[in-house]
Specification:
With 179 residues, the chain is mostly helical. It is built from 8 helices and 2 strands; from the N terminus they run αββααααααα. It has one domain. α6 runs antiparallel to α7.
């Protein structure tokens, strides 16, 4: 295909433009990690990432709306769950996707190795959600891009900057054991 090979296949702009996080990712929050209130952090994003989006509905809504999502399903944990799991660091009080936006824009920090590892464990070649989806597609007998096969896992992977490709599906399907 000649495309530049990169592990993720959706940058932050694609994730936002596709319809993600129920429209709530950059909602106003109180961080129990930093003990601060945050709002309007979406304003730090490059404006072209938000082009054509209804920001109050699709990016900074206080209310989760699965209709905003690509696959019209709800997925993901609460900020409180992520904070109590120890996955939120003070530099990125909103979590992984905020880190990803900043990393994508060129910021480098000591948290990069941990965050890249979290991505790999979710959506990388051996990633749990990526392989969960591949297994479900194989066992369903449907095409790799059939949206009816596990829309929640597809939406989850999208939040992590990954959409299953035919090439990745073919490679991963070789490792699926029959039922």
């Amino acid at each position: 295909s000649g495309s530049k090979k990169r592990p993720y296949n959706q940058g932050p702009k694609e994730v936002l433009q596709a319809g993600s996080f129920g429209g709530t990712y950059f909602r106003p929050i109180y961080s129990s990690i930093t003990k601060q209130h945050y709002k309007d952090l979406w304003k730090e994003l490059p404006q072209d990432w938000l082009q054509g989006l209804n920001v109050p509905k699709q990016v900074s809504s206080a209310t989760y709306n699965e209709e905003v999502n690509t696959y019209k399903v709800k997925c993901g944990g609460s900020l409180e769950m992520w904070e109590s799991s120890g996955w939120i660091k003070p530099q990125d009080p909103y979590g992984w996707f905020q880190w990803y936006c900043r990393f994508y824009e060129g910021r480098r920090t000591e948290d990069d190795v941990r965050q890249i590892s979290r991505w790999a464990n979710c959506a990388g070649v051996k990633g749990r959600w990526r392989n969960n989806l591949i297994t479900k597609v194989v066992r369903s007998g449907q095409r790799f891009d059939d949206r009816s096969v596990s829309p929640v896992v597809r939406q989850t992977l999208q939040h992590w900057g990954y959409r299953l490709t035919e090439e990745d599906y073919r490679e991963g399907a070789k490792r699926v054991k029959p039922k």
